[in-house]
Each structure stands twice: as structure tokens, then as C-alpha cells.
Amino acid sequence: MRKTGRATEYGRRAEQAAAEHLAAHGYVIRDRNWSPSGGHVELDIVAQQGRTLVFHLLDGTVIESSGSMDELARQLADYPGFLRPHRSYLVNMEYIHNITAKSITMESLAEVPLPHGRFTAVRDQYLEYAFAGKKVVL
Questions:
Q1: Closest CA relative to residue 34, chosen from 47, 25, 17, 23
Q2: CA–CA gap between residue 83 and residue 20 (Å, rounded)
Q3: Which of 34, 70, 93, 138 shows its CA 20 to 30 Å from the CA of 48?
Q4: d(CA 67, CA 34)
Q5: Is residue 43 exposed (0-12), middle (13-18) or buried (19+ Cβ within 10 Å)?
């Protein structure tokens, strides 16, 4: 279903109001209208306050995560599509474009570094995910 001009304008105003509300309460807006390359917008707003991240999704869902990267990784453990290739990164495997011995290239062309010796484990985890979801075409 295609959004009309009125619906699109309403969405923009609601997003702006949410961003202003978060900023007024001490959050730093880290990103807005994020989407995978060629895809539709999936995250309206990503905000941070200290060690708390707040994700506002397009469908209105709000996800809040507090704590360290280890804690966020534990929170995402129930979702098989996430991979932690490096201590500072969590990756949604749905958006991996390529994996080499040195890095993961995302569909957005962002590069995630791979520590020395992690390539085989990361590749194997991705292939297991890809084959389970029948994403691989031979």
C-alpha cells in the first residue's frame, strides 16, 4: 500500500515530535530514517542516553536496551539472525553483502572489521543462517 502525501507528512511530523521529545529528555539522536540499501525505512530514530539505546521502528515499536554490548548481545541471543563478529559490533545477518577474512561488508557498504582468526567461525555461522533461511542460491 502506498502512502498518500497526507500520511507521509503526518509520519514526518510524528517522527520530528518524537525526536524533539527524546532530545528534551537528554537523549542524543544517533540516526534517523535508517534503511538497508535499496530498502524501505526500518528505523525512524535511534537515540542514546548514556548506555541506553532506544530504537523507534517504522511500525511504531519502541525497543530500549540498556547496558553494555555484552548485555545487548544477550538480549538478542533469542534472535538467530544476529552475529557478533567483533567486540564492538552486532550484525543483522539479513543485511550482509560479503564476508572476507578481514571484514564483513553490509548491504549499505559499511565495513565491519573481523579480528584475526574469526573468519572461519563467522563464515560458518552466516552460512548456517543462510542455508536455514534458504537464502542461498546455487
A1: 47
A2: 32
A3: 93
A4: 23
A5: middle
Q: Give pLDDT tens digits for 7-17.
A: 577 777 888 88
DSSP string covering the chain, please? -PPPHHHHHHHHHHHHHHHHHHHHTTPEEEEEEE--TTS---EEEEEEETTEEEEEETTS-EEEEES-HHHHHHHTTT-TTEEEEETTEEEEGGGEEEE-SSEEEETT--EEE--TT-HHHHHHHHHHHHHHTT----
User: In this predicted model, what pLDDT tens digit does every residue of 21-60 receive, in sequence order?
Assistant: 888 988 888 777 766 555 555 677 888 888 888 888 777 7
How far CA 113 is from CA of 33, 80, 102, 127, 130, in Å, comes to 24, 21, 6, 18, 20
Q: Which residue has the cell 543485511?
A: 95
- How far apart are alpha carbons 7 and 30 in whole angstroms? 25
- Alpha-carbon distance of 47 to 64, in angstroms, equals 9
Identify whether the C-beta of residue 47 lies closer than 8 Å to the C-beta of residue 54.
Answer: yes
